[in-house]
Design a protein that fits this description.
Blueprint: H1 2-9, H2 19-31, H3 39-49, H4 56-61, H5 65-75, H6 81-89, H7 94-98, H8 101-124, E1 126-128, E2 131-135, H9 148-152, E3 158-164, E4 168-175, H10 189-194, E5 199-201, E6 204-210, H11 214-235
Parallel strand pairs: 2-3
Antiparallel strand pairs: 1-2, 3-4, 4-6, 5-6
Length: 242
């Protein structure tokens, strides 16, 4: 009986970039749930979960109500914020939810931090052989938008960034979602991070190092950078000398 129940109630499809999309489609197709009232919510869930923003400017510019809500949700520390938000997301347009007083109160400081993060990363990020690197371990900035480096240096393919929080040093490793390099030529970021005790998925990952081991974190970041730069050089399209 348990096996039969599992076959009817456990679903997996690796083609989906959004868990929300899979849940919605299964609920509609298998159980007759009407997802039409949530079409806008599902549309943006797919974009945000799959990093399918049309451009780095769209992701970093925070013009759309859904992207503003995303920034608030990602940085929410009040345990009551998300439970208070969820019923509104399912009952009214996203733009109306964004205008709720408690949402605006949380959004204002987040937007200000976002502007500071852009300024900081502009001063620290450099690109070499298709790899952006930066070190902001001297700044309390964990939680910055991972799209900012690609917004600042859009021709790059990868990023290796160092940041620090109260409990760890984080080495963030990522792939530009808008790169024109064919997918089969891109590095498997998860595999790289796993060698250093981290993880992720093929396009983005991270490695955590104890907060008092800055030298070790920098060593690992340097090794990962060299590996990705070598790959970037191999993938570089030769320019016509004429």
């Amino acid at each position: 009986m348990k096996q039969a129940w599992d076959q009817q109630h456990k679903f997996f499809d690796a083609a989906y970039t959004s868990c929300t999309g899979l849940i919605a489609d299964v609920a509609r197709e298998r159980f007759g749930f009407d997802t039409e009232p949530y079409a806008d919510l599902l549309h943006w869930a797919d974009i945000i979960d799959g990093a399918k923003f049309e451009s780095a400017d769209a992701a970093v510019g925070l013009a759309a109500p859904a992207i503003k809500l995303m920034t608030v949700i990602e940085s929410a520390t009040d345990p009551d914020f998300i439970p208070r938000l969820i019923p509104l997301l399912t009952a009214q347009p996203l733009v109306d939810t964004l205008q709720e007083n408690f949402v605006q109160e949380a959004l204002a400081p987040r937007l200000e931090k976002h502007r500071r993060d852009i300024t900081l990363l502009r001063s620290r990020a450099v690109e070499n052989h298709g790899v952006i690197t930066f070190d902001i371990t001297d700044q309390p900035t964990e939680g910055y938008s991972k799209f900012i480096p690609y917004y600042l240096l859009p021709e790059a393919v990868y990023v290796v960034g160092l940041s620090k929080s109260s409990f760890r040093i984080k080495i963030s490793v990522g792939t530009n979602p808008w790169t024109t390099v064919p997918a089969e030529h891109l590095a498997n970021i998860a595999a790289i991070c796993e060698r250093y005790g981290g993880g992720g998925h093929p396009r983005v990952g991270a490695i955590s190092v104890p907060v008092d081991q800055i030298a070790e974190a920098k060593r690992i970041a340097a090794e990962v950078t060299v590996e990705l730069e070598a790959l970037g050089q191999r993938n570089r399209v030769p320019t016509d000398p004429a």
